[in-house]
Amino acid sequence: MTGVVYFVVIVLANSLGAVSGMGGGVIIKPVFDFIGANSVVEVSFYSAVAVFVMSIVSTIGHLKNGFCLKWLVVLWVSLGALIGGMVGDLVFSKIVAVTGQRNALLVQVILTIITLLFAMLYTRFNWQSFNLEGFFWYLLCGITLGFFASLLGIGGGPINVALLMWMFGIKIKDATVYSICTIFFSQLSKILTIAFTTGFAKYDTSMLMYIIPAAIVGGLVGSRLSKVLSAEKVVIVFQLMILTVILINVYNGIEVLI
């Protein structure tokens, strides 16, 4: 029964996540925490796999739809995300080891809410972009995005789109595609870090038979919706997702405290 629930959650979350560029982990992670069927470490792993698979499917879909990527931007941001993702996963593992799963979850909830508020304020008030260029800024952006993606276990989230728009002046529909590409590398780094450190033995990998197909479906639906929705509609989807996830995280944070 848990697998079926996970399947439905992932399809819905990844569909919306592919459209908004947030990557479904921003919904998958807190909802799975709320369900409480698995540990915080397992949930982070399942979320990473779901978003990783979705990012592959969604990126292929965008390229087939004719989106022209600036590969130099993708290269440097993704390299940074790969580095940041490894660091973020190691930091999260350290937090769990030092403080325990309960406090680690609380840290994730608080930091997730902070990044959500940043993204909401940026898209609400249209802050002036810096229009930065050059490999250093692309690399720094990627490191920041990859670090928070792995640390929070949300596979990217709202900070991706908002930071890309803020630093480089990218329009929201373009930023969502670059965000998904970045998410691919940040989650790849998370999965590789697990593979070469603790391994996968401690995870119930039977759940992947539900998670991977659901991620594929979500990626296909999301890339199709992204093609037909206007930039204004994408902003609405983005902001509604933020509000929803803030409420879920606030509830989960209260549950941890009491």
Offer a concise description of the structure.
It contains 10 helices and no strands. It is an all-alpha fold and 258 residues long.
The 3D shape can be described as globular
Instruction: Count every helix, treating DSSP H or I runs of 4 or more residues as helices.
Output: 10
Secondary-structure element pattern, one letter each: HHHHHHHHHH
Structural class: mainly alpha
Q: Enumerate the spans where pLDDT stays under 50 for 5 or more consecutive residues.
A: none
Helical residue percent?
A: over 70%
What percentage of amino acids are in beta strands? under 5%
Topology, number of strands: 0
Distance between the termini: 28 Å
User: Mean of residue pLDDT?
Assistant: 88
**Whole-number tally of structural domains:** 1
Computed Rg: 17 Å
Report the major sheet: none
In words, what does this structure look like?
- With 258 residues, the protein is mostly helical.
- It has helices spanning 2-20, 25-35, 40-64, 71-99, 101-125, 135-152, 158-168, 172-196, 208-228, 231-257.
- Helix content is 82%, strand content 0%.
- The longest helix has 29 residues, at 71-99.
- It has one domain (2-257).
Q: SSE layout and pairings?
A:
Elements: H1 2-20, H2 25-35, H3 40-64, H4 71-99, H5 101-125, H6 135-152, H7 158-168, H8 172-196, H9 208-228, H10 231-257
Features:
258 residues; mainly alpha; 10 helices
